[in-house]
Task: structure prediction
Amino acid sequence: MKKHFFTLLILLLALCLYNCGDSRKKENTNTTELNNQIAEEPIQQPVFKINLNLVIPNDDTIEVFYLDFDDTEYSYETKVAKKIEGNPNAQGIEFLLPKKIFPSSLRIDFGQNGSEENVTLNSVAMFYEDFELILNAQEFYSFFIPNQYVSYNEETGVIERILVDGKYDPYFNARALFKKKLELEVR
Result:
């Protein structure tokens, strides 16, 4: 009987040790899984990006106004502005619209400082998720129309900013063709 009791005790002890070891493995696995979840990258929200490649000789501010599909007019609440350091060489300027905004229209303002020095637009690129649109100076003119404060040479991309009756507000507004393109590509 002592022999059976001793064997039974060893079996119980072995069973306890086996179960304890198994629960430790589960704890480690859960901790590892939890650590993996913590280590995962947060989900990135889509952002509409506009990259301008241009030569702007003087310090100035460039603004991009956008319309969401519910908007009918541009406003200061729907604009992104960047202060630019003047440079005789081409530079890239990136504008990021608020997360999850895919615009129905855009307006690009080329300066606020009153300078009448020319700006040269080399290209405009736009990205959002799988949407990509890259425009050279001629293609830009097909999608955007200058206002009365701009004389634009679509062959060279030169933007001549003009004072009219003492007023200054040089910008390009989206043409109907560009608005239709955005409407077809909406995400």
